[in-house]
């Protein structure tokens, strides 16, 4: 038995000490932020790549990452092999003999075999022969990538996308993925104290901020695909979850007081309250009103994090006015703390007549977005 762990002294009794290559995926553009987060979860050497971070880890390393990463969109175990040698891969460790065929997703680039359906049929044939697969519906997902005749197989370890933490049953018209909300919270380095999301919608930013500050693991309370692998050690995993139930306490966390989520849409506020209750988040003041009406209730020094409407998915004829007023409000409340926005508005930020710097630029469902920090200094128009 080996004792392996992530950072912060959480040790895990686990029989399986085989090291595997893991690929942790993230929204393209956030690879460096993910790398920083993973450095706090594992001692493994991290290699930043397009779309994610690769590392070699033992079983418990995988558990730490699946449960502890707030930014990861998915985690997969990868193998490389020359095309035609799929049969030599240790797939029986991940796919049960006599179990269902996995779903197979294929990408082919610059290879002799270029027809993805044909590659899928070959892989399926090998799996059927080796594992005597049943006709039951698939429970696992296998990614097959053929590039320059080199085959890369990845067994999905997370299962359901990792942004689905399980607390969000109600969403607004333009909800923000939990992973991207977590990116804003990490970029703001929020560690408790007063907080305000003036465009809170279904409450994702406030919920992610408070869960992180109170040490709730992003993946606590959900299951992962690796729990269905034949090699999965369920007793050790149960013990791991009991020992490592909470995230390591954040250093220097201020009390979680003066936290406000507000929105002018009463309906989404109801959703935010329900989501917060399900997420175990307490003590938030949810206020109905436009930000100009609510701003006077916001305590001095409050960090402002928000995902203002951009007008691409929400039709709002008054959008320019919203940004002009936001600039006015922020110039008036210079006593507020840092102001970070997830911005996808194109030019609308100019309307605030404030200066800003972009901290992270990335894609959200194919749209270019960025996390910007607004300064309270005006820019001359
Ligand atoms: C992009 S959504 C925010 C989504 C949110 N982050 C979530 O996780 O659901 C923008 C929100 O801003 C709200 N909103 C638009 N204009 C507003 C204003 N002037 N004052 C307050 N809320 C406003 C909308 O009702 C909408 O819920």
Rg on CA atoms, Å: 23 Å
Helix-strand topology string: EEEHEEHEEHEEHEHHEHEHEHEEE
Bound molecules: S-adenosylmethionine
Q: Ranges with pLDDT <50 over ≥5 residues?
A: 1-5
CATH class of the largest domain: Alpha Beta
Percentage of residues in helical conformation: 25-40%
The tally of structural domains comes to 2
| Mean pLDDT level | 88
Q: For the largest beta sheet, what order do the strands appear in spatially? A: 4-5-3-6-9-8-7
At the fourth level of CATH, the homologous superfamily of the largest domain is Vaccinia Virus protein VP39
Cα shape: elongated
Strand content: 25-35%
Largest sheet entry: 7 strands, mixed
Query: How many helical elements?
Result: 9
What is this entry, summarized?
This protein is an alpha/beta fold and 381 residues long.
Describe it:
The protein is an alpha/beta fold. It folds into 2 domains: 2-156, 2-Layer Sandwich (VC0802-like), CATH 3.30.2130.30; 178-215 and 250-378, Rossmann fold (3-Layer(aba) Sandwich). It contains 9 helices and 16 strands. The strands form 3 sheets. The protein has a 7-stranded mixed β-sheet with strand order 4-5-3-6-9-8-7, covered by helices on one side. The chain has a 7-stranded mixed β-sheet with strand order 12-11-10-13-14-16-15. A two-stranded antiparallel sheet has the order 1-2. α4 crosses α5. It is elongated. The model is unreliable at 1-5 (pLDDT under 50). S-adenosylmethionine is lined by residues 172, 174-176, 198-199, 201-202, 204-205, 263-265, 268, 290-291, 307, 309, 322.
């Amino acid at each position: 038995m080996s004792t392996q762990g992530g950072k912060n002294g959480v040790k895990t009794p686990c029989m399986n000490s085989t090291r595997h290559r893991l690929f942790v995926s993230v929204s393209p553009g956030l690879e460096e932020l993910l790398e920083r987060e993973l450095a706090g979860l594992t001692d493994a050497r991290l290699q930043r790549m397009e779309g994610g971070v690769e590392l070699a880890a033992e079983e418990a390393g995988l558990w730490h990452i699946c449960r502890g990463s707030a930014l990861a969109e998915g985690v997969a175990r990868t193998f490389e092999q020359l095309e035609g040698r799929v049969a030599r891969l240790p797939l029986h460790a991940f796919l049960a003999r006599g179990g269902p065929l996995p779903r197979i997703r294929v990408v082919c680039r610059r290879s002799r075999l270029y027809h993805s359906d044909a590659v899928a049929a070959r892989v399926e044939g090998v799996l059927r022969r080796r594992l005597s697969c049943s006709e039951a519906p698939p429970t696992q997902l296998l990614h097959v990538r053929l590039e320059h005749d080199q085959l890369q197989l990845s067994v999905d370890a997370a299962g359901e996308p990792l942004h689905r933490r399980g607390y969000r049953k109600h969403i607004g018209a333009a909800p923000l993925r939990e992973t991207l909300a977590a990116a804003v919270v990490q970029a703001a380095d929020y560690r408790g104290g007063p907080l305000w999301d003036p465009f809170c919608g279904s409450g994702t930013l406030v919920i992610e901020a408070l869960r992180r500050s109170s040490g709730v693991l992003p993946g606590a309370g959900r299951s992962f695909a690796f729990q269905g692998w034949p090699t999965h050690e369920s007793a050790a995993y149960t013990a791991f979850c009991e020992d490592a139930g909470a995230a390591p306490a954040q250093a220097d966390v201020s009390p979680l007081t003066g936290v406000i989520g507000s929105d002018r849409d009463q309906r989404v506020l109801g959703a935010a309250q329900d989501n917060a209750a399900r997420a175990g988040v307490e003590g938030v003041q949810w206020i109905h009103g436009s930000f100009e009406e609510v701003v006077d209730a916001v305590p001095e020094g409050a960090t402002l994090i928000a995902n203002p409407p951009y007008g691409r998915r929400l039709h709002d004829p008054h959008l320019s006015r919203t940004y002009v007023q936001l600039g006015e409000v922020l110039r008036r409340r210079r006593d507020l703390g840092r102001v970070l926005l997830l911005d996808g508005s194109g030019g609308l930020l100019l309307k605030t007549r404030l200066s800003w710097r972009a901290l992270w630029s990335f894609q959200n469902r194919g749209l270019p977005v960025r996390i910007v920090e607004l300064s309270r200094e005006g820019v001359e128009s």
